[in-house]
Amino acid sequence: MPKYGRGSCWWAGRFRGGGYRLTMPRQSILEVLDNASKHLSAEDIYLAVHKIYPNVGLTTVYRTLDLLVQMGLVSKLDFGDGRARYELSESSKGVKQHHHLVCTGCNRVIDYTDFIDEEIKLLGRIEKELSKKFNFKITNHLIRFYGLCNECQNKK
Q1: What is the helix (H) or strand (E) element at residue 155, kind and residue range?
Q2: Using an 8 Å Cβ cutoff, are 56 and 49 in contact?
Q3: How far apart are CA 19 and CA 21, in angstroms?
Q4: What is the CATH number of domain 1-91?
Q5: 1-91 and 97-156 share one CATH topology?
Q6: What is the pTM of this model?
Q7: pLDDT tens digits, residue range 107-116?
Q8: The architecture CATH gives domain 97-156
Q9: Residues pairing with 119 in the sheet
Q10: CA 59, CA 78: separation in Å to the nearest integer?
């Protein structure tokens, strides 16, 4: 049975505000993503939800993920391995900006969150200048760095 704790509150309001119903499949998909320790594919999400709600099909998961991405609740990520991955745009703790380090050797993805002050200032300046240059209101950004993780470096 899914949990209905503090974490579910923030997305319930987004559904009501957008004119959508928060159905059990939608709730369970969001909870799977909220509890995930890695970036999940639609198939990974389906397998986790299916254990709780066997009547939820893969098509429902794909449709729901499309809606959640459209609503801005979920980010769809492409790390170049041919499989879309998903993560919450924010969690019960709020928005947590992070970047990704993607290993081109083993496809491992590392979330990078411990920014130093210089990085925050640099990204702020870049966003400000791009906004001014293109008269564009930036609301978010995704940054991915590609290379080799420590294990793949040591194999060479």
Answers
A1: helix 150-155
A2: yes
A3: 7
A4: 1.10.10.10
A5: no
A6: 0.69
A7: 888 878 777 7
A8: 2-Layer Sandwich (3.30)
A9: none
A10: 20
